[in-house]
Design a protein that fits this description.
- By secondary structure, the chain is of the alpha/beta class.
- It is 51% helix and 15% strand.
- It has a five-stranded mixed sheet, with helices on both faces. The protein has a two-stranded parallel ribbon with strand order 4-6.
- A hairpin with a 5-residue loop joins strand 2 and strand 3.
């Protein structure tokens, strides 16, 4: 009887130890995934320091170049006064018309719902966009992201722009759920 009791006690202790080790391993794995994701976001933003130094025209040309790199055709910069919200116009590889609004703001600013609403009013109606895309060198507010999700507008904030710049294909950015992605928190002006 004593041997059975001792065996059961050892089994219970071993189970508790193994459970604790498994839980600790899972916590460590989650922490490592979070750290790697934050590192990737920081590197993506860090590689874009030149974006904040560009003027508006250079930023539009930069975005047009990314579109061309990802197989878009008939890409042209249309920005300037009277552009009605179309800074870059082209065709996606599948033939759909893409209209891009570019906002090169300081990193500590945000793009609000009003800018998104204005773009929504012209992208499809004035320019015939199949895929309206708003690219910003900062982040979007939560109401802006919610509005864009309801209207099927693609938003590319500074974090996604960093990934796009580093080789992520435009097509993969078009499929994101923008209502749930990103952050609406402003970056500090001195953020790395």
């Amino acid at each position: 009887m004593g041997l059975v009791l001792l065996s059961a006690l050892c089994t219970a202790v071993a189970a508790v130890v193994v459970t604790g080790l498994v839980r600790a391993g899972r916590r460590e794995a989650r922490a490592e995934r979070a750290r790697l994701a934050e590192e990737a976001r920081r590197q993506a933003r860090g590689s874009l320091e030149t974006v904040w130094a560009m003027n508006d025209r250079e930023f539009e040309e930069y975005v047009a170049g990314l579109c061309r790199r990802d197989g878009c055709t008939d890409v042209r910069r249309a920005g300037g006064s009277g552009d009605l919200g179309a800074d870059v116009i082209g065709r996606l590889p599948d033939g759909r018309k893409i209209v891009v609004q570019c906002k090169r703001y300081a990193k500590h600013r945000t793009v609000g719902s009003r800018d998104i609403q204005t773009f929504n009013g012209t992208a499809r109606a004035e320019h015939g966009a199949d895929v309206p895309v708003f690219v910003a060198s900062c982040v979007f507010t939560k109401p802006a992201r919610a509005f864009a999700a309801r209207r099927r507008l693609t938003l590319i904030d500074i974090n996604l722009l960093g990934f796009w710049n580093n080789g992520t294909a435009l097509a993969s950015l078009l499929d994101l759920d923008i209502a749930r992605s990103g952050t609406h928190r402003k970056l500090r002006a001195d953020h790395d």
